[in-house]
Amino acid sequence: MKPIKAIYVDDEAPALDLIRKYCETIDEIDLLACFQDPAEAVIYEQMDEVELLILDIEMPGISGTEMVEMVPSGKLCIFITADPTHAAQAYELDVIDYLVKPVFPERFVKAVQKAADYLKFTGIEQENNFLVFKSDYMVNKLPLKDILWIEGFGEYLKIITRFKQYMVLQRLSDFIDKNEKLGFVRIHKSYIVHVKQVKSHNSQFVFLADDKQLPIGRKFKDCLK
Length: 225
Prior knowledge:
6 helices, elongated
């Protein structure tokens, strides 16, 4: 597996130097850049290539939690902070790990390995007719055949299956960009379906295999042709 492409943002120079040294000894990570100014990180020209954000939380101007919401979604995140009281907020953002300073090398390696395992796991399983995603602080693996439809709610989406529903922090547009090759199509500004779940359709509605009826948006009328 290729090293994870990452950036680290922390307004404290000694912390940047320490994590940079740690990364130099870990084969699983490729630290593309370090920033003391989070505003510079947000407009980093290689941000689309970044897979992992390593972020301090309390920084001037833009906090780490704010930065997570400003960059393209779908990136993994490790928070490194001197204040342990941010843990609840961090986990609401579904981060990979949360480290409290001082960070020792063994603990940092463990956090990077979590990120590497997640990327490896999702890559393998998506090739084998599964969708892998994070929800409720857990990595979930679902057979594509069990996913009935997906509904968007702003920054979140709801995955509806035969057995339960999952809330995921991801935009519908980002989901379809990432998973279109798996057979998902967007039929409405609020709905995505898997083509194998479509029983029939007309110009206004999609009828799913379980007899559920979903609307087709005007701009998506040609999505199933």
